[in-house]
Write a structure and sequence with these properties.
The structure holds two protein chains of two kinds.
Chain A lengths: L3 E4 L2 E4 L5 E7 L5 E7 L6 E8 L2 E4 L6 E3 L9 E3 L8 E8 L10 E2 L3 E5 L1
Parallel strand pairs in A: 2-11
Antiparallel strand pairs in A: 1-3, 3-8, 4-5, 4-9, 5-6, 7-8, 9-10, 9-11
Chain B lengths: L3 E2 L4 E5 L4 E7 L4 E9 L6 E7 L4 E4 L2 E6 L4 E6 L8 E9 L6 E2 L3 E6 L1
Parallel strand pairs in B: 2-11
Antiparallel strand pairs in B: 1-3, 3-8, 4-5, 4-9, 6-7, 7-8, 9-10, 9-11
Classes of the chains: A mainly beta, B mainly beta.
Protein backbone atom coordinates (compact mmCIF):
# COMPACT_ATOMS: atom_id res chain seq x y z
CA UNK A 1 0.00 0.00 0.00
CA UNK A 2 1.27 3.44 -0.87
CA UNK A 3 1.40 6.03 1.83
CA UNK A 4 3.33 8.29 4.14
CA UNK A 5 5.02 6.91 7.23
CA UNK A 6 5.95 9.12 10.13
CA UNK A 7 7.95 7.79 13.01
CA UNK A 8 7.88 7.65 15.89
CA UNK A 9 4.26 8.29 16.83
CA UNK A 10 5.22 9.78 20.20
CA UNK A 11 8.53 11.42 21.04
CA UNK A 12 9.76 12.85 24.30
CA UNK A 13 12.83 15.04 24.63
CA UNK A 14 14.51 17.22 27.19
CA UNK A 15 14.73 20.91 26.55
CA UNK A 16 17.93 21.88 24.76
CA UNK A 17 18.18 18.69 22.71
CA UNK A 18 17.78 18.52 18.97
CA UNK A 19 15.37 15.89 17.71
CA UNK A 20 14.69 14.55 14.21
CA UNK A 21 11.28 13.43 13.01
CA UNK A 22 11.17 10.93 10.21
CA UNK A 23 8.91 11.10 7.14
CA UNK A 24 9.00 8.55 4.32
CA UNK A 25 6.65 8.24 1.35
CA UNK A 26 6.31 5.58 -1.34
CA UNK A 27 3.78 7.48 -3.43
CA UNK A 28 6.44 8.76 -5.83
CA UNK A 29 5.33 12.30 -5.04
CA UNK A 30 7.59 15.18 -5.93
CA UNK A 31 6.49 17.61 -3.22
CA UNK A 32 6.70 17.09 0.53
CA UNK A 33 5.66 19.30 3.41
CA UNK A 34 5.91 19.64 7.17
CA UNK A 35 3.07 21.17 9.15
CA UNK A 36 2.64 21.83 12.83
CA UNK A 37 -0.69 21.62 14.64
CA UNK A 38 -1.36 23.37 17.95
CA UNK A 39 -4.65 23.36 19.86
CA UNK A 40 -7.16 25.87 18.48
CA UNK A 41 -5.02 26.65 15.46
CA UNK A 42 -4.94 25.48 11.91
CA UNK A 43 -2.06 23.56 10.45
CA UNK A 44 0.90 25.86 9.94
CA UNK A 45 3.53 25.25 7.30
CA UNK A 46 7.11 24.80 8.52
CA UNK A 47 8.99 23.77 5.38
CA UNK A 48 8.23 22.32 1.98
CA UNK A 49 10.24 20.75 -0.80
CA UNK A 50 9.31 20.53 -4.46
CA UNK A 51 12.26 18.45 -5.62
CA UNK A 52 15.25 16.60 -4.23
CA UNK A 53 17.95 18.82 -2.74
CA UNK A 54 15.67 21.84 -2.69
CA UNK A 55 13.37 23.18 0.01
CA UNK A 56 11.71 26.42 1.06
CA UNK A 57 10.74 27.94 4.37
CA UNK A 58 7.11 28.14 5.33
CA UNK A 59 5.52 30.53 7.80
CA UNK A 60 7.17 29.17 10.94
CA UNK A 61 10.56 27.81 9.88
CA UNK A 62 12.57 29.38 12.71
CA UNK A 63 14.09 26.74 14.94
CA UNK A 64 13.60 23.95 12.39
CA UNK A 65 15.74 22.43 9.66
CA UNK A 66 15.07 19.90 6.91
CA UNK A 67 16.87 17.94 4.23
CA UNK A 68 15.70 16.30 1.00
CA UNK A 69 18.47 13.98 -0.12
CA UNK A 70 16.06 11.41 -1.50
CA UNK A 71 12.67 11.78 -3.14
CA UNK A 72 11.12 9.44 -0.59
CA UNK A 73 12.41 11.08 2.55
CA UNK A 74 11.97 14.50 4.17
CA UNK A 75 13.20 14.49 7.79
CA UNK A 76 12.52 17.43 10.07
CA UNK A 77 14.93 18.44 12.83
CA UNK A 78 13.54 20.43 15.72
CA UNK A 79 16.47 22.34 17.13
CA UNK A 80 17.01 23.76 20.59
CA UNK A 81 16.37 27.20 19.06
CA UNK A 82 12.67 26.38 18.63
CA UNK A 83 11.02 28.11 21.58
CA UNK A 84 7.81 26.08 21.74
CA UNK A 85 8.56 22.70 20.20
CA UNK A 86 5.82 20.71 21.92
CA UNK A 87 3.22 20.08 19.21
CA UNK A 88 1.74 17.59 16.79
CA UNK A 89 3.81 17.42 13.59
CA UNK A 90 2.34 16.31 10.29
CA UNK A 91 4.20 15.38 7.14
CA UNK A 92 2.43 15.52 3.79
CA UNK A 93 3.13 14.98 0.13
CA UNK A 94 1.54 15.82 -3.20
CA UNK A 95 2.26 14.82 -6.78
CA UNK A 96 3.17 18.31 -7.94
CA UNK A 97 2.91 21.69 -6.23
CA UNK A 98 2.05 23.35 -9.52
CA UNK A 99 -1.03 21.28 -10.03
CA UNK A 100 -3.91 23.12 -8.44
CA UNK A 101 -6.18 20.16 -7.92
CA UNK A 102 -3.56 18.24 -6.04
CA UNK A 103 -4.67 17.55 -2.48
CA UNK A 104 -2.11 16.76 0.14
CA UNK A 105 -1.67 13.24 1.47
CA UNK A 106 -0.82 13.23 5.16
CA UNK A 107 0.99 10.87 7.45
CA UNK A 108 -0.41 9.99 10.86
CA UNK A 109 1.74 12.52 12.65
CA UNK A 110 4.30 12.59 15.44
CA UNK A 111 3.44 14.09 18.80
CA UNK A 112 6.54 15.70 20.25
CA UNK A 113 6.71 16.61 23.91
CA UNK A 114 9.65 18.62 25.20
CA UNK A 115 10.07 19.07 28.94
CA UNK B 1 -2.47 36.09 10.25
CA UNK B 2 -5.35 33.65 9.94
CA UNK B 3 -6.44 33.80 6.35
CA UNK B 4 -8.79 30.86 6.75
CA UNK B 5 -11.18 30.84 9.68
CA UNK B 6 -13.52 28.24 11.06
CA UNK B 7 -15.38 30.09 13.76
CA UNK B 8 -17.22 27.11 15.21
CA UNK B 9 -14.86 24.86 17.15
CA UNK B 10 -17.54 22.21 17.53
CA UNK B 11 -20.85 21.06 16.11
CA UNK B 12 -23.22 18.36 17.30
CA UNK B 13 -26.00 16.89 15.16
CA UNK B 14 -28.34 13.95 15.28
CA UNK B 15 -27.79 10.97 13.00
CA UNK B 16 -29.72 11.36 9.75
CA UNK B 17 -29.82 15.15 9.94
CA UNK B 18 -27.77 17.62 7.93
CA UNK B 19 -24.38 18.83 9.18
CA UNK B 20 -23.24 22.22 7.94
CA UNK B 21 -19.65 23.27 8.56
CA UNK B 22 -18.63 26.80 7.71
CA UNK B 23 -15.41 28.43 6.65
CA UNK B 24 -14.47 32.05 5.89
CA UNK B 25 -11.38 33.35 4.18
CA UNK B 26 -9.82 36.76 3.74
CA UNK B 27 -7.40 36.35 0.85
CA UNK B 28 -9.09 37.08 -2.48
CA UNK B 29 -6.19 35.33 -4.27
CA UNK B 30 -7.39 31.94 -3.05
CA UNK B 31 -8.87 29.99 -5.92
CA UNK B 32 -8.91 26.41 -4.74
CA UNK B 33 -10.57 25.17 -1.57
CA UNK B 34 -10.51 21.81 0.14
CA UNK B 35 -12.02 20.04 3.09
CA UNK B 36 -10.07 17.49 5.09
CA UNK B 37 -11.34 15.11 7.71
CA UNK B 38 -9.24 14.04 10.68
CA UNK B 39 -9.76 11.23 13.17
CA UNK B 40 -7.84 11.24 16.48
CA UNK B 41 -4.20 10.13 16.24
CA UNK B 42 -4.35 10.10 12.44
CA UNK B 43 -3.38 12.56 9.75
CA UNK B 44 -6.06 14.49 7.84
CA UNK B 45 -7.51 12.84 4.77
CA UNK B 46 -8.79 14.68 1.76
CA UNK B 47 -12.57 14.82 1.53
CA UNK B 48 -13.73 17.17 -1.22
CA UNK B 49 -12.55 20.25 -3.07
CA UNK B 50 -13.88 23.09 -5.17
CA UNK B 51 -12.32 25.44 -7.65
CA UNK B 52 -13.21 29.13 -7.61
CA UNK B 53 -14.80 28.81 -11.05
CA UNK B 54 -17.58 26.74 -9.47
CA UNK B 55 -20.05 27.45 -6.71
CA UNK B 56 -20.94 23.88 -5.85
CA UNK B 57 -19.31 20.47 -5.89
CA UNK B 58 -21.00 17.28 -4.82
CA UNK B 59 -19.65 13.85 -3.92
CA UNK B 60 -22.15 11.45 -2.49
CA UNK B 61 -23.33 12.71 0.88
CA UNK B 62 -20.86 15.60 0.81
CA UNK B 63 -21.45 18.92 -0.92
CA UNK B 64 -19.26 21.99 -0.79
CA UNK B 65 -20.68 25.42 -1.58
CA UNK B 66 -18.56 28.44 -2.42
CA UNK B 67 -19.72 32.05 -2.19
CA UNK B 68 -16.84 34.11 -3.57
CA UNK B 69 -18.43 37.48 -2.97
CA UNK B 70 -18.83 36.65 0.71
CA UNK B 71 -15.50 34.77 0.85
CA UNK B 72 -17.35 31.91 2.46
CA UNK B 73 -17.59 28.20 1.89
CA UNK B 74 -19.54 25.49 3.59
CA UNK B 75 -19.56 21.73 3.73
CA UNK B 76 -22.91 19.94 3.89
CA UNK B 77 -23.15 16.34 4.98
CA UNK B 78 -26.51 14.71 4.32
CA UNK B 79 -27.49 12.45 5.96
CA UNK B 80 -25.00 12.61 8.80
CA UNK B 81 -23.72 9.32 10.19
CA UNK B 82 -21.93 8.52 13.46
CA UNK B 83 -18.82 7.59 11.43
CA UNK B 84 -18.67 11.19 10.24
CA UNK B 85 -17.67 12.26 13.75
CA UNK B 86 -14.23 13.81 13.29
CA UNK B 87 -12.46 17.15 13.03
CA UNK B 88 -13.00 18.88 9.70
CA UNK B 89 -10.42 21.31 8.34
CA UNK B 90 -11.06 23.85 5.66
CA UNK B 91 -8.05 24.72 3.48
CA UNK B 92 -7.36 27.19 0.71
CA UNK B 93 -4.68 27.72 -1.85
CA UNK B 94 -3.85 30.41 -4.39
CA UNK B 95 -2.60 29.71 -7.90
CA UNK B 96 0.67 31.58 -7.35
CA UNK B 97 1.53 30.15 -3.96
CA UNK B 98 2.77 26.71 -3.11
CA UNK B 99 1.45 26.44 0.40
CA UNK B 100 -2.00 25.63 1.61
CA UNK B 101 -3.67 27.60 4.43
CA UNK B 102 -5.73 25.73 6.96
CA UNK B 103 -8.48 26.74 9.34
CA UNK B 104 -8.39 25.68 12.99
CA UNK B 105 -10.91 22.90 12.42
CA UNK B 106 -14.44 22.08 13.57
CA UNK B 107 -15.10 19.01 15.66
CA UNK B 108 -18.27 17.32 14.40
CA UNK B 109 -20.11 14.88 16.64
CA UNK B 110 -22.94 12.88 15.13
CA UNK B 111 -25.13 11.32 17.79
CA UNK B 112 -26.90 8.02 17.12
Amino acid sequence: DGGITQSPKYLFRKEGQNVTLSCEQNLNHDAMYWYRQDPGQGLRLIYYSQIVNDFQKGDIAEGYSVSREKKESFPLTVTSAQKNPTAFYLCASSPDTDVLNSPLHFGNGTRLTVT
Amino acid sequence: DQQVKQNSPSLSVQEGRISILNCDYTNSMFDYFLWYKKYPAEGPTFLISISSIKDKNEDGRFTVFLNKSAKHLSLHIVPSQPGDSAVYFCAARSYNNNDMRFGAGTRLTVKP
